[in-house]
Amino acid sequence: MIRVGLTGGIASGKSTLVQVLKKEGIPVIDADEVAREVLFLYPEILDYLTKTYGEMVVKDGVLNRRALGKIIFSDPKKRKDYNAVIMPRIREEVEKRFLAHSAETLVVLDAPLLFEENFHEEMDAVITVTVDAATQLKRLMARDGFSREEAEARVAAQMDLAQKAAQSDYVVDNGGSREESARRLKEILERIRRDHGKTKEEETP
Ligand SMILES: CC(C)(COP(=O)(O)OP(=O)(O)OC[C@H]1O[C@@H](n2cnc3c(N)ncnc32)[C@H](O)[C@@H]1O)[C@@H](O)C(=O)NCCC(=O)NCCS
Ligand SMILES: Nc1ncnc2c1ncn2[C@@H]1O[C@H](COP(=O)(O)OP(=O)(O)OP(=O)(O)O)[C@@H](O)[C@H]1O
C-alpha cells in the first residue's frame, strides 16, 4: 500500500481535491472526520473539555465546536494543551484506518496538520494544496461565514503554506480553476504510482 499524505492550509482546497480522489476510486482517510469521531469514541476528551472550560464549551454533553474553536484558535497554549489530549487518539484511529485498507494500492490521508503533527514522516509521498493568502481568506470567510478576524486567527494557527509546500514531494496550486487543480492532481497520482512501480491498470478493482 502506498501511503499518500494530502495537506494544505485551511480552505486551501483539500476537500475539493478529495472529491476528485473519490471519483478515481481512491480511499481517503479524513483526519478532521477522525477528530470528530474520537470525541464520541473516547469520553476522556469531552471530560477534559468540561473540566477545563465548563458550560461555555460543553453543555448537556454536547460540544459547542464554534466556541471551542474561538478559544483554541486564539490561544497557542490552550491549543497545545487540547492537541495533547486529542492527537494521540487521532493518531491511533488513523493507523487503524490505514490497516483496514491494507489491500489497496494507494490510500490517501487528508490531514490539515500533517506536518505540524509529524504524520508526514509515515507517508510515502506528500502532496500540498496551496493557494495565495488573499484567496484563502476570501474562500474561508465565504464558506464558513467567519469574520476577517476569525478567519485570520485560523490561518495563523497553522504552519505557513509556503513552508509546507517546500517540504512536500508535490504541490497543487489551487489558485486557478477546480478543473486545472483536478488535472494536476491526477498527473501527480500517476507519477506516484509510477515511482512505486504500479500503474493504474495493475490495481485490484
Ligand atoms: C477546535 C474544533 C472543535 C473546531 O471545530 P470546527 O468544526 O469549527 O472546525 P473543523 O473541525 O471543521 O476544522 C476546520 C479546520 O481548522 C483547522 N484545525 C483544526 N484543528 C486544528 C488545530 N488543532 N490546530 C490548527 N488548525 C486546526 C484545520 O485546517 C481544519 O480543517 C476542531 O477543529 C478540533 O477538534 N480540532 C482539534 C483536532 C485536530 O487537531 N484536527 C486536525 C487533525 S490533523
Ligand atoms: N479552484 C477553486 N476555485 C474556486 N473556489 C474553490 C476552488 N477550490 C475550492 N474552492 C472553494 O473554497 C472553499 C475551500 O475549499 P475546501 O473546502 O476544499 O478547502 P479545505 O482545504 O478542504 O478546507 P478545510 O481545511 O477548512 O477543511 C470551498 O468553499 C470551495 O468550494
TrEMBL record:
ATP binds at residues 11-16. GO terms for biological process: coenzyme A biosynthetic process. It is an enzyme of class 2 (transferase). GO terms for cellular component: cytoplasm. SUPFAM superfamilies: P-loop containing nucleoside triphosphate hydrolases (SSF52540). It comes from the Bacteria. Pathway: Cofactor biosynthesis; coenzyme A biosynthesis; CoA from (R)-pantothenate: step 5/5. It is found in: Cytoplasm. Keywords: ATP-binding, Coenzyme A biosynthesis, Cytoplasm, Kinase, Nucleotide-binding, Transferase. Pfam families: CoaE. It catalyses: 3'-dephospho-CoA + ATP = ADP + CoA + H(+). Its EC number is 2.7.1.24. The keyword Cytoplasm applies. GO terms for molecular function: ATP binding; dephospho-CoA kinase activity. InterPro entries: Depp_CoAkinase, P-loop_NTPase. Catalyzes the phosphorylation of the 3'-hydroxyl group of dephosphocoenzyme A to form coenzyme A. Belongs to the CoaE family. This is Dephospho-CoA kinase. It comes from Proteiniclasticum sediminis. The gene is coaE.
